[in-house]
């Protein structure tokens, strides 16, 4: 009788030991697969083609790293560099850098002339306020401020002081993006290279500083060019940690949850209301992210698997990304300036 009991007892002990070796996962957060089949990160279907000439503007569109959707899910907002690839707005004061394009591609709003030095990031909040981020240009033009405007271009507030840099809670250095959470909390991605800041800051809806996290590095919660921000419907914050070739995922208190490398070297991130993630990769190459090509990859937040890939041949170009309610993709291009719409085949 005793021998009969030993076998199930040993079996139970072995099962407990095996389960103890399985790493714990973070509740509600998809764990990044090693690289789901196909293993080639560029070998995914592309069901899109360009809708050439869709954006109707009476001049050349400048470098565009900043693209976001209007809450209506149809109109798209663009923050571009006044017709040039880099610092055109600092030199030309008679061109509007902010544009709203309706579903037909017509520019129905244009504003901001003379008020902007260096367009870099944009976020359109649920109340249709337009948040604009000015960083540091390649030529050394320093702005490092964040503005909140109405949809008609009325300035409501500015965070930071234009022309100054710093690492205090009211100064930025290489500020890249901003995001407003559903409760009004303001998240800022502050940093653009290893020579600038490398941190995320959180403020309340009134701009009162709450907390910050991050430093230069490649470990969990460290950054090298936190270039873009997005939030899923569960409230998790996604950071395009570009020079580390990964997306980092955090809760709203800065707790590290996960990292994803399967979407390439991210410049821009967009998450739809149904939790599809789209990632713009402008800088992958054989040296800094072997095996990955430039373009846009997308997949589901729920499992982190890449489902599709829109390849793009121009290096250091495709940075901004947004997606409308019908699944059309809008992409902003910087060093080869353009703004394009891609529609399903």
Describe how the helices and strands are arranged.
Layout: H1 2-21, E1 48-50, E2 66-69, E3 76-79, H2 88-91, E4 98-101, E5 107-111, E6 119-124, E7 130-136, E8 142-149, E9 155-159, E10 175-180, E11 186-190, E12 199-203, E13 209-213, E14 226-231, E15 237-241, E16 246-250, E17 256-260, E18 266-271, E19 276-281, E20 295-300, E21 306-311, E22 318-323, E23 329-333, E24 338-344
Antiparallel strand pairs: 1-24, 2-3, 3-4, 4-5, 6-7, 7-8, 8-9, 10-11, 11-12, 12-13, 14-15, 15-16, 16-17, 18-19, 19-20, 20-21, 22-23, 23-24
Structure description:
This protein is mostly beta strands. The protein has a single domain (37-344), classed as TolB, C-terminal domain (Neuraminidase). Helix content is 7%, strand content 38%. It is built from two helices and 24 strands. It has helices spanning 2-21, 88-91; strands spanning 48-50, 66-69, 76-79, 98-101, 107-111, 119-124, 130-136, 142-149, 155-159, 175-180, 186-190, 199-203, 209-213, 226-231, 237-241, 246-250, 256-260, 266-271, 276-281, 295-300, 306-311, 318-323, 329-333, 338-344. The strands form six sheets. The protein has a four-stranded antiparallel beta sheet with strand order 1-24-23-22, with no helix packed on it. A four-stranded antiparallel beta sheet has the order 2-3-4-5, with no helix packed on it. The chain is globular, with a radius of gyration of 22 Å. The termini are far apart.
CATH homologous superfamily placement: TolB, C-terminal domain
CATH topology (level 3) name: Neuraminidase
Whole-number average pLDDT?
91
Per DSSP, what share of the residues sits in E-state strands of 2 or more residues? Answer: 35-45%
**Count of DSSP strands:** 24
pLDDT < 50 runs, ≥5 residues: 1-30
Under the CATH scheme, which class? Mainly Beta
Question: What is the chain-wise order of helices and strands?
Answer: HEEEHEEEEEEEEEEEEEEEEEEEEE
Terminal-residue CA separation: 70 Å
Gyration radius over CA: 22 Å
Give the count of helical stretches: 2
**What spatial order of strands do you see in the largest sheet?**
1-24-23-22
- CATH architecture assignment: 6 Propeller
Structural class: mainly beta
